[in-house]
Specification:
The complex is a heterodimer.
Chain A (H helix, E strand, L loop, with lengths): L3 E3 L4 E4 L4 E7 L6 E7 L6 E6 L3 E5 L2 E6 L4 E6 L8 E8 L5 E3 L3 E6 L1
Parallel strand pairs in A: 2-11
Antiparallel strand pairs in A: 1-3, 3-8, 4-5, 4-9, 6-7, 7-8, 9-10, 9-11
Chain B lengths: L3 E4 L2 E4 L5 E7 L5 E8 L3 E10 L2 E4 L7 E2 L9 E3 L8 E8 L8 E2 L3 E5 L1
Parallel strand pairs in B: 2-11
Antiparallel strand pairs in B: 1-3, 3-8, 4-5, 4-9, 5-6, 7-8, 9-10, 9-11
Classes of the chains: A mainly beta, B mainly beta.
Chain lengths: 110, 113
Amino acid sequence: QKEVEQNSGPLSVPEGAIASLNCTYSDRGSQSFFWYRQYSGKSPELIMSIYSNGDKEDGRFTAQLNKASQYVSLLIRDSQPSDSATYLCAVKTAGNMLTFGGGTRLMVKP
Amino acid sequence: EAQVTQNPRYLITVTGKKLTVTCSQNMNHEYMSWYRQDPGLGLRQIYYSMNVEVTDKGDVPEGYKVSRKEKRNFPLILESPSPNQTSLYFCASSSSQGTDTQYFGPGTRLTVL
């Protein structure tokens, strides 16, 4: 079992809709959680980090963390075609390694 | 401009021919790491370094070497490349192990024939 799991997608949503991306992790000692966005052929860029249970909002993005259930999610409100990318969930484990999920490809259709 | 640079950006080589991919950051970051990205497998950490002369293995260190003699540089060395090391490689840095915003370099696409 992979340590960080994501549905590979593609997840297709219409423009203006809410895109919901999910990630589960196996290491209960994990303390830091991140969402990166990666456009095709480009390097990942950090869009959200979350460290405690609950929601964290930043503009159109909301990260949600539930440590008891070992999942972290990313909501993108008012999705735009420019949001079309692969979204990578990353978890920093107790051993200080940053482990990435395989990524979910999001397609926002005009 | 704060950045992580990698060279070369593209490299085609043959099995067994030693190569080095350089990585440099200008942000005075302590923490640097190397990842490889393969379709369906996501980003996997090869090696990381928490400071000068301190390096440690990540998930997939076999076939790779690193060194950290200066804070700004963290080269990745493939002593005897093999075709299964064909991949997209990213270098990343962050200010410390506790500050988790990692800045990624532009990537190096390596093909080993």
